[in-house]
Amino acid sequence: MSLRLLAAIAASFLLLCTTTHAGPRRIVSLNLCADQYLIALADPEQVASLSEYARDPSMSYYAERARAYPVAANAAEAVITLRPDLVIVNRLRKQETQAILKPRGYPTVELRPARTFEDIVEQTRQIAAAIGHPDRGEALIARMRAALAAIPPAGETRPVAAHYQRRGFITGTGTLLDEIMTRAGLENLAGRLGKKAVSRVSLEEIVAARPDYLLYSDRPAPGTDLGTDLLLHPVLAARYGAGRQLHLPGALTVCGGPSFPEAVAELYRQAHP
What DSSP letter does each residue of 55-100 carry, written as one string? Predict the structure, then answer.
């Protein structure tokens, strides 16, 4: 075998090694929570599109960083045009889009809602493996664990807080926000009231239960709508002034993932001044 042929074979092998990627090259996210994982774990050139909400600062933890990524409508026609080799979906949403994509053989990963930190750990590993970067997933998990460990332990007495939302809904037990509240040294009033998931609680019940804090995702603004006006009721205004309100932006709590330690730390800071 000639030296020229050997050199050509070596060059071809080197080119193959440098261009072959273990993970997918054209990932499309139809899931706001998957957006966060892709920004944290994927190579930017792997991402063909983030979800249509990725740049919304009221919902997306990485809204600013998402501006550097392509964003497409969460419609089947838009996804097909992008020629993805992996589509990340939410099992409970955009089912009509999924019904069109699945028969066409697009590889799909379903991301279920996270309700605990261990769910977040599992999701991190799931996405990291699917996109070909399991080492980055383990590194992210280690950083999240370290950030949580740095938060001071809660005292024996936990203030009681209610996450009160427009139209009188309260976030119950068994939810991601419930775990955030627990790790931040708070007791979720929903547990005392026997409320799971998201339940409606009357203004009278809230007043009678006398939580130490009311927790809001967004600061209630007068005149927004009738549902929000409930949060500005004179009784609540009299009992829950600025010192008895907690505010945790929805972008920190809508999804599990990299935002979780920051959500816990921010809530702890406010609840234990």
Answer: T-TTT-TTTTGGGGS-B--SSHHHHHHT--SEEEE-TTS-HHHHHH
End-to-end alpha-carbon separation of the chain, Å? 76
Q: What is the pLDDT of residue 223?
A: 58
For residues 243 and 224, what is the distance between their CA atoms, to the nearest angstrom?
A: 23
Q: Find out whether 258 and 36 touch, Cβ atoms under 8 Å.
A: yes
Q: What is the DSSP letter of 157?
A: S
Q: Is the dihedral of CA 174, 180, 183, 189 positive or negative?
A: negative
61: closest CA among 266, 260, 272, 267? 260
Residue range 209-228, pLDDT digits in tens: 999 999 998 777 665 676 77
Place of tokens 């957006």: 35
CA distance 259 to 53: 16
261 closest CA partner among 134, 121, 159: 121
Between strands 169-171 and 198-200, the pairing is: antiparallel
Specify whether the CB–CB gap between 38 and 127 falls below 8 A: yes
Q: How far apart are CA 45 and CA 10, in angstroms?
A: 27
Residue pLDDT, tens place only, 120-143: 999 999 999 999 999 999 999 999
Q: What structural domains does the chain harbor?
A: 18-148 (3.40.50.1980), 160-271 (3.40.50.1980)
C-beta separation of 80 from 48 below 8 A: no
d(C-alpha 208, C-alpha 203), whole Å: 9
H/E segment holding residue 199:
strand 198-200
